[in-house]
Design a protein that fits this description.
By secondary structure, the protein is α+β, with helices and mostly antiparallel strands. It folds into two domains: about 5-235, Hsp33 domain, CATH 3.55.30.10; about 240-294, Alpha-Beta Complex (CBS domain Like), CATH 3.90.1280.10. Helix content is about 35%, strand content about 30%. The protein contains ten helices and 13 strands. The structure holds zinc ion (ZN). Zinc ion binds near residues 270, 272 and 273. Zinc ion binds next to loops.
């Protein structure tokens, strides 16, 4: 089953909703990062929510979400865009704890709660949009709920979950975002709160075979859901050897000469996809010449 998200409205457009199945995307991130179970859950929740927030953008707009809770995982960084492409990394992937008292992966303990969630959006304007809130629980979903409600000023509810197999691969991953438009009245908000409270864990629903559409129908049992768009989600990194070369050629010739003399080449690793790029002495010499001619 391929990954995708849907954009929908309910209650005559007064509620906007997104739902995603992201199992394969999170599995690819896990494989590339080699995260252990608790780390995979934190990475997967961040990735899934970022995919849905990316779907709120248009054209070539992009966003980067950074969660820094000062826990053992270190920072989590996730990029998303309007085409459903996401990538993410954690600083320390090898983090795993016993389940928390609720029987769930202890994401809060791995992430920490002493820090911030920040979002930077490149909307194609001169200045980037940035928003930052303190972490509320370190469980990630609640932190994004707080961010959307307080920083972007649209009351929201966010849920995301990841189930991990005993062999550490990803069994199921998915999420939802519900946003309350300003014209929505109190009754709708009250109803929505009750509906979200009674919604079973999202990762369980995905495991049982629920598609994103089924999740929203399950959530909005009292009203009609209008689905406007379906968007595939995939793990996609923007790194390339050309980008590494551009970065190196922007250094001074002296620095490049040092790489040649001391390292006999250059090696660059991408945090996001874990791809390693190698440059030979000859390739470095070429970059140096280009710099000089310019
Ligand atoms: Zn990469």
């Amino acid at each position: 089953m391929t990954d995708y998200l849907i954009k929908a409205t309910a209650f005559d457009g007064m509620i906007r909703a997104y739902a995603a199945r992201s199992t394969q995307t999170v599995e690819e991130a896990r494989r590339r990062q080699d995260t252990w179970a608790t780390g995979s859950a934190a990475l997967g929740r961040s990735l899934t929510i970022t995919a849905m927030m990316g779907a709120m953008l248009k054209g070539d707009q992009t966003l980067t979400a950074k969660i820094e809770g000062n826990g053992p995982l270190g920072a989590i960084v996730a990029d998303g865009n309007a085409r459903g492409e996401v990538r993410a990394y954690v600083v320390n992937p090898h983090v795993d704890f016993d389940l928390n008292p609720q029987g769930k992966l202890d994401v809060a303990r791995a992430v920490g709660v002493d820090g911030n969630l920040s979002v930077v959006k490149d909307l194609g304007l001169k200045d980037h949009f940035t928003g930052q809130v303190p972490l509320v629980t370190g469980e990630i979903s609640e932190d994004f709920t707080y961010y959307l409600t307080h920083s972007e000023q649209i009351p929201a509810a966010v849920g995301a979950g990841v189930l991990i197999n005993p062999d550490y691969t990803v069994l199921a991953a998915g999420g939802f975002i519900v946003q309350v438009m300003p014209e929505a009245d109190e009754d709708i908000v009250d109803q929505l709160e009750k509906d979200i409270e009674t919604l079973p864990a999202i990762s369980k629903l995905i495991e049982q075979g629920y598609a994103p559409e089924d999740i929203l129908h399950q959530l909005f049992q009292q009203t009609e859901v209008n689905i406007h768009e379906q968007l595939p989600i995939q793990f996609r990194c923007q790194c390339s050897k050309e980008r590494v070369e551009r970065a190196i050629s922007s250094l001074g010739n002296e620095d490049i000469q040092t790489m040649i003399d001391e390292d006999h080449g250059a090696e660059a690793n991408c945090h996001f996809c874990n791809e390693t790029y190698y440059l030979t002495v000859d390739e470095l010499e070429n970059l140096k010449h280009t710099t000089r001619e310019n």
